Amino acid sequence: VRDLHFRNVRISGSPCGAIAGLSQEGMILRCSVTGDISGSEHSGGMVGTLWASTLMDCQVDVRVTGVECVGGTVGNGPGGMLIRCESRADVVGDESVGGLVGELRDALIVDCRAEGVVVGRDAVGGLIGTMPMAVSVLRSMADCEIVAEQAAGGLAGQALFFGAHSQWIIDSYARGSVTGSIVGGLIGVASALRVANSYTACTMIPLTSETEPVAALVGGLFGQADTSRPPLVIASFWDAEISEIPLSSGAGTQHLGTGLDTEQMQQRPTFEQAGWDLDATWDMSEHEYPRLRWESAWDRDLEDER
Prior knowledge:
- The protein has helices at 240-243, 262-265, 268-272, 293-305; strands at residues 5-12, 20-24, 27-29, 32-38, 41-44, 47-56, 59-65, 68-71, 74-83, 86-92, 95-98, 101-103, 106-110, 113-120, 122-125, 128-131, 134-138, 141-148, 151-153, 156-159, 168-170, 173-180, 182-184, 187-190, 194-196, 199-206, 217-219, 222-225, 232-234, 237-239, 258-260, 282-283, 291-292.
- The chain is mainly beta.
- It has a ten-stranded parallel sheet. Strands 2, 3, 6, 9, 13, 17, 21, 25 and 29 form a nine-stranded parallel sheet that branches. The protein has a seven-stranded parallel sheet with strand order 5-8-11-15-19-23-27, with no helix packed on it.
- It is globular and about 45 Å long.
């Protein structure tokens, strides 16, 4: 499916998406959607269930509501690829809720971004709700207001570990605000994934229950990191000043990544000395956080179109 554009849709079902409830072994290229999509399970702005399919150069500006596996662009599925996709969405669900993707088990997400409001009970993330098996995120970002009762992360709600499968987050970042009882600037609950050349600069809001007075777990990068199979963190940072969180993990037992003040986070030498590619991958203006180079080019193209 290519060059197909829907405006002001109202679609409901389960699984449910404006272009496909189920996309299996296909490609959706240069498509866009605006409107409202709703369902109980596996609801996405463009595709409900993604199965060995690819979405490329697609945009959504939607409101998506559901219960489980709810995403701004894709609800859930065995997996596939999202390349250069953009989600501007208000997403509301219960579990596995994400600004771009609710849950994918085996996926590659490259050069994507999500903006908007993401609300749920558990496993709520700015880009993806749950990374349960073999998901790689490369050169992607989220700038969302995220609200959950339990696990919430600026980029992902949960990134779990299963057997020999590996998960990666490389050259990516999260901005915005994160609220929950297990809160990470990057990931809410994390185990055995690899994070490299990434950062977060999020406002963190711990949420406690009046009926269960248990202290919230809040970390600069991870709300809760598995101690037996901890994440591997390479050259990654969080803004400890804006988050007011001094520890990388909410449990406080591990030192993963580096917390810096805002001034340090907005200086080129910080990232140059860490080995970041500020020529081809990242772009950095004076007194600003790093941005991905493709974002600047994309924004110029959108401005030209307007």
